[in-house]
TrEMBL record:
Residues 1-23 form the signal peptide. The lineage of its organism: Bacteria, Bacillati, Bacillota, Bacilli, Bacillales. It comes from the Bacteria. Pfam families: DUF4247. This is DUF4247 domain-containing protein. Keywords: Signal. It comes from Brevibacillus fluminis.
Length: 256
């Protein structure tokens, strides 16, 4: 009776601890992937637009900044915010057609340089960062102000609905880490089709096996092989020592 009760209490304690741990992790984790809505990938310019449903711009900005610390983040704003990284710009914007959602536009530097209005960016990003991106000696005709206003301020390239292949290829917005991802090729063949073996399967060496037998009586070596009965690489090497001489006869005899 007591043993059953004790086992039941232990089981309940384990379940309780597991629920607590999972609840704590769930409270601290942030959704690392958002639905991909639109794509541009042309002439080295890339832009991917994700949708964060029922989340405001400041909330999404905080989530993304907690996942991956930006080099610069614009001041809190309900309509537009920027997170600047070394190779990408995150432009968070309230969707004009669905104000309860936030559009997350992830642009590479070339897209920002070729499409955005520098005067528009000056309201959110420091002049140092903008001057580092735009060559002041060149003139840029871009008047783009984000995916939400693409019908009014058109980019130089055209967005399109992502295909299934593009959804697979486009990297999601995830937390930064130190690990790496290796994608297995769909055409990879893990079976061995030849006797020479493969990277994951040891080749079959049974066709040529041998052994070394040492004769203890005269310390000589002989080789026995199932595939070859001739001399072996393990045969005793010829001696390079001076030849023997028979005392008194003066003749030379070479050691066998």
């Amino acid at each position: 009776m007591w043993k059953r009760l004790l086992k039941g209490m232990k089981a309940a304690l384990v379940v309780s601890l597991a629920v607590t741990v999972l609840a704590g992790c769930g409270g601290q984790s942030v959704s690392s992937t958002y639905p991909l809505e639109s794509v541009v990938d042309k002439g080295g310019e890339t832009s991917r637009v994700y949708r964060a449903e029922n989340k405001t711009v400041p909330v999404v900005a905080k989530e993304l900044a907690d996942q991956k610390t930006p080099k610069e983040i614009s001041k809190e704003d309900n309509d537009h915010m920027f997170l600047v990284y070394s190779d990408e710009w995150y432009h968070l914007q309230k969707d004009p057609k669905k104000p309860e959602d936030t559009l997350i536009e992830v642009d590479n530097q070339k897209f920002v340089q070729q499409n955005y209005s520098s005067s528009f960016l000056q309201g959110y990003i420091t002049a140092t960062v903008i001057n580092g991106l735009f060559d002041l000696a060149k003139s840029y005709a871009g008047n783009y102000r984000g995916y939400g206003s693409r019908d009014t301020y058109k980019p130089t390239v055209v967005y399109h609905t992502p295909t299934k292949q593009e959804k697979k290829a486009a990297p999601p917005i995830t937390t930064s880490g130190s690990g790496s991802i290796i994608k297995r090729s769909s055409s990879a063949d893990t079976s061995s089709k030849s006797s020479s073996g493969s990277l994951f399967k040891k080749s079959d060496s049974s066709s040529s096996s041998g052994k070394i037998i040492r004769n203890s009586s005269d310390s000589s070596y002989s080789s026995s092989s199932s595939s070859k009965s001739g001399s072996s690489i393990f045969s005793r090497p010829k001696s390079n020592s001076p030849p023997k001489t028979s005392k008194g006869f003066g003749s030379l005899k070479r050691r066998r």
